Amino acid sequence: MKQANNSKCTKCNSEEFVTEPNQYDILRFVNGKFEVIRSEFTDEECKIFCRECGAEINNKSC
After folding, report:
1. Domain tally, the chain
2. Dihedrals φ, ψ of 51, to 5°?
3. Is residue 2 very low, low, confident or very high in pLDDT (cuts 50, 70, 90)?
4. Cα–Cα distance, 41 to 61 (Å, whole number)
5. Bridge partners of 30?
6. Are 20 and 46 in contact (CB under 8 A)?
């Protein structure tokens, strides 16, 4: 796991990050289309990855 320095990835210097997909939406079919009722998380631990190279970032502020 890499440590984020100055808001950049230490592996590739990217400034964009993504979280691990850990949520899903509850949908309801209303008037011929789906509407999001609420979102729920599947995991209490949040993981952050560099969007460019995929390195996992050690970030305690999540």
Report:
1. 1
2. -70, -30
3. low
4. 17
5. 33
6. yes
